[in-house]
Amino acid sequence: MIKKAVSLAAAIAALAAAAAVCVFAAAFALYALLRATMTAAGAAAVVALVFAAIAALVGVIMLRKGGPSHARHEEQSLTARLFDLAREKPMIAAAAAAAAGFVLLRNPNLATAAFSAAMAGRAKQAERRIRRR
């Protein structure tokens, strides 16, 4: 299960990196095209406006897709629900993974705290299993 999660996270990170490179290249190409006809500030403003419009369009498209059924989420664990969300909305999952990675890179103490909390939770679960026996 962990190997599958790590593989999924690596695939999402690779897709997010490739998408970021493509967006950057497209923005630069559009800027270079517009720079020939207007000032640098004007070209930059048009590029920002175009990519904001594209982001809004993608957001609307992603929100208009049918939402997940709520009945099946009642009995699933948080991890299972997160994997279902990643399968149903991969762009949102990639964006969330990229944002989480950026936050963890900027603040490693947060990663340490999250890891410690996860390990403490597992220790309590193991202790409960031992008491039940």
Structure characterization notes:
With 133 residues, this protein is mainly α. The chain has helices spanning 2-35, 40-64, 78-88, 90-106, 108-132. It has one domain.
Question: What is the strand and helix layout of this fold?
Answer:
Elements (H helix, E strand, L loop, with lengths): L1 H34 L4 H25 L13 H11 L1 H17 L1 H25 L1
Task: Give a quick rundown of the structure.
With about 130 residues, the protein is an all-alpha fold.
Number of strands: 0
Helix coverage percent of residues? over 70%
CA-CA gap between termini:
26 Å
Low-confidence stretches: none
Characterize the overall form. Answer: elongated
Q: Mind telling me the C-alpha Rg?
A: 21 Å
**Tally of distinct domains:** 1
Order of helices and strands, N to C? HHHHH
- The overall pLDDT average reads 78
Helical element count?
Answer: 5
Q: Strand-residue fraction?
A: under 5%
Q: What does the largest sheet look like?
A: none
Name the structural class: mainly alpha
Task: Please name the defining characteristics of this protein.
133 residues; mainly alpha; 84% helix; elongated
